[in-house]
Amino acid sequence: MSGRDVLTRSVRGQGRRVAVGAVLGCVHQLGEALVPVLIGVVVDQAVAGRDAGRLALWLAVLAVLYVCLSWSFRLGARIGERGAEEAAHTLRLALVRRVLDPRGGAEDDRLAGELANVATEDAKRVGAVNMALMSGVWAVAGLAVSAVVLLLTSVPLGLIVLVGTPVLLWLGHLLSKPLERRSEAEQDRAAGAAGAAADLVAGLRVLKGLGAQQAAVERYRRTSRVSLAATLRAARAESWQTGLVLALTGVFIALIAWVGGRLALEGSLSLGQLVTAVGLALFLL
């Protein structure tokens, strides 16, 4: 069975939960996209017009919107996490059955600790694919709603956001490549350290009888140090990637604010529409 087959079976086994969670997540994304729209309406119709009645009305609408989006996210995320955990648990049971099969189900060169690591961390990552799939559907729904609102608000500003956002995400993906490589190495080293620890504990009585416990401890320390070094490299790569992405995002938001401010000064955009455009840009990022 290939890796793709494992992932496909994981998703199909939780198909109903994935579908329901995706729908609820889309409702949440719709509400999130409408928040800056309502804030823009409040600015234009209530704050600029100094109308206390309209201000109270739109604030009440905003409160209802927050309740709806909060409820939909909470329920959708709960269903999604349940699906991810159920899929991971099902895969762990399948792994255990394979390992305990009398005909031999594990590779001969696998240590017990490595098998335990595969049955926990790797199975958990496979189960998380269900949540990742739902998150992808949520993102598409949010992007579609935001695109329509932005283009209706201001075509130039909408085009900047809709063209710039994929470019920024692509750059973020490129910056994450070193992190992916280091994370894979970290996972391998962690599995090796877990395997060495399980091997040491399982043979502790024999090692004491041979007087070789010190050599075994030194072996584990070397393996653990290698695992620690891999973890630190992954952490450094993650910090650099996060910092660069945040810097690029800040520059992009500043560009949107500058263009929107120019359009507002020229009278092509109201203050509320400017707030909506900047808020939707932040939401998309």
Terminal CA distance reads 37 Å
| Estimated radius of gyration | 26 Å
Residues in β-strands, percent: under 5%
Largest sheet: none
Provide the low-confidence segments as ranges.
none
Helical coverage, percent range: over 70%
Topology, number of strands: 0
Number of helices: 9
Q: Determine the structural class based on helices, strands and strand pairing.
A: mainly alpha
By CATH reckoning, the class would read: Mainly Alpha
Helix/strand order, N-terminal first: HHHHHHHHH
CATH level-4 homologous superfamily: ABC transporter type 1, transmembrane domain
How would you explain this protein's 3D organization?
The chain has helices at 3-13, 15-47, 52-100, 112-153, 155-175, 177-202, 204-210, 213-265, 271-284. By secondary structure, it is mainly α. The chain has a single domain, classed as ABC transporter transmembrane region fold. The radius of gyration is 26 Å and the shape is elongated. It starts with a helix and ends with a helix.
Please write out the topology.
Elements: H1 3-13, H2 15-47, H3 52-100, H4 112-153, H5 155-175, H6 177-202, H7 204-210, H8 213-265, H9 271-284
Helix pairs in contact: 1-4, 2-3, 2-4, 2-9, 3-4, 4-5, 4-6, 4-9, 5-8, 6-8, 8-9
